[in-house]
Amino acid sequence: MNRVIILFVIFLTVSGLVAGQEKTKAQPAAGDSIKASPAYAELLLRKTELESELESLLIDFTEDYPRIKDIRMELDLLKAESDRVLSVKPADSGRLTLALGKLILGKLGHSVALKRLLTQYQDGHPSVKKEKRQVEIFEAAIKEILG
Fold it and tell me: What is the pTM of this model?
């Protein structure tokens, strides 16, 4: 009799665990709404394009090739911006529009240009000032959307 009760308790415990796992699988993860957003998709598309171009260039060129350096720089910046998007609360995922993705990519383009210019010129150079201002303008628009 005790053996039957123990087996029954084990059965109920295992059944409950399996049922709990099925419920967990059915519920989408909190980050799924973020990864399904147009902004994240835009960033992922750009990352994929850059990685593809990088692989192609690495066949013929070394890490010292200027375009390879630019791609690596942009991928680093893109990673930081992707992490920023992924940190948005799921309740605010409606803010992650295609326009936001395009703003982020615009900022990245100017950030790469700025870093390239800073290897050649001082902070006070007109071209450096112009690119810094462009980065600031894009960042201000991004902050306006993300809050």
Answer: 0.78
